[in-house]
Structure formats: C-alpha cells, structure tokens
Write a structure and sequence with these properties.
The complex is a heterodimer of chains A (122) and B (110). Chain A is mainly β and 122 residues long. Chain A contains no helices and eleven strands. In chain A, the strands form two sheets. In chain A, strands 2, 4, 5, 6, 9, 10 and 11 form a seven-stranded mixed β-sheet that branches. In chain A, a hairpin with a 6-residue loop joins strand 4 and strand 5. Chain A is globular, with a radius of gyration of 14 Å. The model of chain A has no long low-confidence stretch (mean pLDDT 96). Chain B is built from no helices and nine strands. In chain B, strands 1, 3, 4, 7, 8 and 9 form a six-stranded mixed β-sheet that branches. A three-stranded antiparallel β-sheet of chain B has the order 2-6-5, with no helix packed on it. Chain B starts with 8 loop residues before the first strand and ends with a strand. Classes of the chains: A mainly beta (122), B mainly beta (110). At the A-B interface, strand 10 of A face strand 7 and strand 8 of B.
Chain lengths: 122, 110
C-alpha cells in the first residue's frame, strides 16, 4: 500500500523559506507513471494546488505561487521536497503531499499524506 | 486565478440524494474531461471519490456519481448515509499544466 509522509518545521518566521519533504513508501518516486504533488489548505479554508514534480525533475507550478516555489526530487531517498520562499502569515496552512496522475488523459490525486501544519509567525 | 465555484453548503436526509455543483469556465471545467472530486472529513486528508468527470476509484461506493454539462460539473450522492457528511472539493485541469480547486461544499446529513 502506497504511503506518503510529510515532514519539516511546524513554525517558520515571516520572510523566511518554508521547507518540507515528503517520504514515499510502498512505491517509487522514480515511477514513470506519476507526478508527485503538493497541495495546501489554510485553516478553515479550501484546497490550493501548489505544484507537481516528475521523477526527471520536470515541474509544474501554480501560476499564483510560481515565483516563490521550488520543488525537487531525490530518487535515492524516495523523497520529494517543497520550498516556498518569502513566506507571510497567508502561507499558514496544512500542507499535503500526494501522488498526482498527470500522464496522458489523467489529472487527479489518488494517494495523500496525512498533512502537516506549518504556521508562519515571529 | 479564481477558484472554481461551489455552493458553500448542501444538505439532505438519510436515504435522499443530493447534488453538488462546481462551476468554472470553458478554459477549465468546460474545456477538459479532467474533473475530480474529493471528500474530506474534519482533520483528515482528502479522499479521491471521482476522477475524469464520472469514473469511480476502486472502493468508492456506487452511490457517488459524477457528471458534467457545459462549464459545470456535478457530484451526486445517492442514498445518503451519515458517514457522507463531509466537505467536498472539485478540481479541474485548467490548461498549461495548471490545476484549480473549488472552494468546497459542506454536506450535512440531516
């Protein structure tokens, strides 16, 4: 059974960079069949797609966050990561990683991590 | 970019059916058959319920169905059960490798 687990600091200071890692077990980030995505949810609000990455390093980012987002993949550790720069309180959210079907006629997320709350505060 | 439009709330009694709408534009919902729906219970991660407008993943009850007409997608939950009470989010491909979520609908089982 595929499992994803987010990890990283739960508290980040304003203007600094938020860094999270998603560790995949029961499957491989090197699979040519899937992308791997990040989605966030501010407290009490809806979901927002941040971006997705392929094992080769190809990335697709939400245009509204593109200038601040960097994603990477480490196939040796079976992990992928998110960096969001210049954070403000508006970036406070639960951050989810998920497997993203984005090859051919597919666009959906079928396996999700449990999510991790990141608070931006001094 | 604006989120897809969903009603904030919907409700129905056990055994009844309820339909949740998700309205976009011809550049997203209306332009592609890549609409998916997610169920989220409080404090939990979202769960995929419908993909490619109307396809159900293995394990999702057939009480859940999806459809689309023009720029609006629909999720119908038939034979409502107490455990269906949750937030529901639609998602659509919006071209140029971009994805958009709806604002979410809180479904209450009366």
């Amino acid at each position: 059974q595929l499992q994803l687990q987010e990890s990283g600091p739960g508290l980040v200071k304003p203007s600094e960079t938020l860094s999270l890692t998603c560790t995949v077990s029961g499957g491989s980030v090197s699979s040519r069949s899937y992308y791997w995505g990040w989605i966030r949810q501010p407290p009490g609000k809806g979901l927002e797609w941040i971006g997705s990455i392929y094992y080769s390093g190809t990335t697709h980012y939400n245009p509204s966050l593109k200038s601040r987002v960097t994603m990477s993949v480490d196939t040796s550790k079976n992990q992928f990561s998110l960096k969001l720069s210049s954070v403000t309180a508006a970036d406070t959210a639960v951050y989810y990683c998920a497997r993203h079907h984005s090859i051919g006629p597919d666009q959906y997320f079928d396996y999700w991590g449990q999510g991790t709350l990141v608070t931006v505060s001094s | 970019q604006s989120a897809l439009t969903q009603p904030p709330s919907a409700s129905g009694s056990p055994g009844q059916s309820v339909t949740i709408s998700c309205t976009g534009t011809s550049s997203d919902v209306g332009g592609y058959n890549y609409v998916s729906w997610y169920q989220q219970h409080p404090g939990k991660a979202p769960k995929l319920m419908i993909y490619e407008v109307s396809r159900r993943p293995s394990g999702v009850p057939d009480r859940f169905s999806g459809s689309k007409s023009g720029n609006t997608a629909y999720l119908t939950v038939s034979r409502l059960q107490a455990e269906d009470e949750a937030d529901y989010y639609c998602n659509s491909y919006a071209g140029s490798n971009n994805l958009m979520f709806g604002g979410g609908t809180k479904l209450t089982v009366l």
